[in-house]
Write a structure and sequence with these properties.
single chain, 4-stranded antiparallel β-sheet, 7-stranded mixed β-sheet, mainly beta, globular
């Protein structure tokens, strides 16, 4: 099973990025999926979660109103649209299904002027 995250990069404060996570050899359509992040020198932090059909979404407090999680079960892909990025959003972002023990390799997001 592979969770291949992409879309990270370096942006200025106020910028946007869209992360994608393609899952291989595992069908996600029945699973809650998550984005978590790890800022430099800090612990893992919950970012967002989405229900199997996409009807329910949850966000960490600092992400509400700026981040949007989405999924395309036909493409076995998870997305995270991040707007109005701040320096404190700098982190490695992972897509995951923790209950299933599935974690991607992460993609680096750096927000800096």
């Amino acid at each position: 099973v592979q969770l291949q995250a992409s879309g990270g990069g370096s942006v200025q404060p106020g910028g946007s990025l869209r992360l994608s996570c393609v899952v291989s050899d595992f069908t996600i359509r029945k699973n809650w999926m998550y984005w978590v992040r790890q800022p430099p020198g800090k612990d893992l932090e919950f970012v967002s979660a989405i229900s199997p059909d996409g009807s329910e979404t949850y966000y960490g407090d600092s992400m509400k109103g700026r981040f949007t999680i989405a999924r395309d079960n036909a493409k076995n892909t998870l997305y995270l649209q991040m707007n109005n990025l701040k320096s404190e959003d700098t982190a490695v972002y992972f897509c995951s299904d923790p209950p299933a023990g599935l974690w991607g390799q992460g993609t680096q997001v750096t927000v800096s002027s």
